[in-house]
Amino acid sequence: MIQVYRKEYNEILELLKLIPSYDYLKIPSEKIEFFEKHAIKNYNFTIQSTNRLEFSRTTYVIFTKLYRDYIATEDEKTKIDEILRLNEEKKRKELKIKELFPNKIKNHEVQNNLPVAENNNMSLFKRIMNKIKKFFTKK
Q1: CA–CA distance from 28 to each of 25, 58, 60, 68, 120 (Å)?
Q2: How far apart are alpha carbons 20 and 135 in whole angstroms?
Q3: d(Cα 63, Cα 131) in Å, to the nearest integer?
Q4: Ranges of H-type helices in the chain
Q5: Residues 18-50 pLDDT 10s
Q6: Who's near 132: CB < 8 A, 6+ residues apart?
Q7: 134 conformational bin, left if phi > 0, alpha if psi -120 to 50, beta if neither
Q8: Contacts for 13 with CB less than 8 Å, ≥ 6 apart
Q9: Which of 46, 45, 65, 69 has its CA nearest to residue 57?
Q10: What torsion, rounded to 10 degrees, do the Cα atoms 108, 114, 115, 120 define?
């Protein structure tokens, strides 16, 4: 399974370079070392601009978990957990509808649909990325 996410580990390492050192230090060194050990050595990924951060969905998931577990405040953790719960509920409903009406739902409507609970019209990942961008404007 580690082999599957090697590219994402590179993206995580680049993303972690963007967060303030006081947040970076909250992440256990074992996690960072794991990403460094399993990242693809010749995969050249650099972030060109913080105005448009584009990563794979898996990178967003990994970063969200890191953020929730090590960086987020208790209030933020509660909000993230609620959004994740709503996302899971939404995904289950989509799957149930797809099972009930397999011929009525086009594949492209369900396929590649990121499970995102709408909260003020902004996805969890977008809000996290906005928070990261705020770190840069504070400096």
Answers
A1: 7, 20, 19, 13, 32
A2: 7
A3: 12
A4: 6-16, 21-24, 29-38, 57-66, 74-100, 107-110, 124-138
A5: 889 999 999 999 999 999 999 888 777 666 555
A6: 15, 18, 19, 50, 53
A7: alpha
A8: 32, 35, 36, 39
A9: 65
A10: -110
